[in-house]
Amino acid sequence: MHKEEHEVAVLGAPHSTILPRSTMINIQSETSVPDHIVWSLFNTIFLNWCCLGFIAFAYSVKSRDRKMVGDVTGAQAYASTAKCLNITALIVGILMTIGFILLLVFGSVAIYHVMLQIVQEKQRY
Question: Where do the structural domains in the chain lie, given as residue ranges?
């Protein structure tokens, strides 16, 4: 045996210079786009001053429809509009509710004072 044949026998077959092929699989993750439909429904039922809750609900439904079709960009645009409308509806609803309660309280106090004056004037005669 020659020296070269001995090395081949000891080391085994020569290694290939070809690199193993690799396969790349791109898995698209499910992009979660919140459609804010529950929040819109809450604003529609409870805080529907100026119909902002109903408009937000309509945009939430459009966002859900776009998401079902696979249009993530359209779904995000409608969801963003629904979110802005929900925030506005919530703020306006809270302010209007507080204003209504204050008007009711101060109006009741004013009516009480007017009625008290009327009763006192009738007692004088």
Answer: 40-124
